[in-house]
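Risk register update: the risk that structure generation would not scale has been downgraded. Supporting records follow, first protein first.
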Amino acid sequence: MQNFDVVVIGAGPGGYVAAIRSAQLGFKTAVIEREFLGGVCLNVGCIPSKAMITATHLLHKAQHNFKEMGLNIKGGIDVDMKQLVKWKQSVSDKMSGGVNQLLKGYGVTIIKGEAEFKTSKEISVKSSAGTEAVQAKYFIVATGSRPIEIPGFKFDEKDICSSTGALAFDAIPKRVAVIGGGYIGLEISSYLRKLGTEVTVIEAQASLLAGVVDPDCAQIVTRKLTKAGVNVLYGAKAKGQKKVKDGYEVTVEINGKDEVVKCDKILVTWAVVQMAIRPT
């Protein structure tokens, strides 16, 4: 049995910061994480997506802007997708390692495993090493969120992907259907398009980023995506998908009529669902 003043469940951007602050205030603190320090944002979300966007932005400049600057590249630029993904992962790993050092530096105990409340003052933590009991005066639940699957689009993270799979392709896909025109789908659409992928965004609303950003900002993003060659279907609902010889056919309902979007990969970024842990 381990005892603490404060135990934080989840080591994402909310959790590890809360744990550090608790330790700074003099509380004996632990943080429990079942996957990776830094959470989804740092490991399979915000940071890796920005890394891919940065790399493909440089590629785009080399292909389209260098010549006018007098920087001539003989021949084309070959993209080693496996190396690009490896580099992206190294960026996340370095930052995750930084979180680890910060927690240790402030004296926060790191416990790997999955937490479950037994009472309001005790949890059990299950890991590959077994199950241990942890008690605390206070608990902070910072378990974040996870992608939600929609009917007919079960994730395999190879062909039908959440953002996690779409940030780890081992080859550049030729055609991708993106279900959801929120910021996650559009970030990934942007990086894929600069790699030469044909991208079709399937958005149920009448505009991109609806309810997420100011309409004027959304218009700027829309213009840039259109200029880049991203195809956007508005008022569209993805009803299902079918595996065919040369990829997938996604059935989309637009204005009461069904249309088919052909693709090699399907990215679902429709929504996320909050995860919470409650006492039993």
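Supporting record for the second protein:
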Amino acid sequence: MDRCRDKNAVSPGPIDTGILGHGMTEEAAARFKAERVADNPMRRFGTPEEIAVAAAFLAFDATYTTGAEL
């Protein structure tokens, strides 16, 4: 019997990792980034640190959490 059938997940929106817009013109990259921010309820990019905190929470602190999507 699989006791961990319901998995937890981290599903972030756009994250500013420095690669966004890579291979695009400066204008196209700016437009792409502005569109992502406009579509995001937070109206900003997330950071890799924010995703790391969410992953660490699920890995170590969420001992009685199952089927959660952050």
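The mean pLDDT is 89. On this basis the risk owner (M.S.) recommends closing the item.
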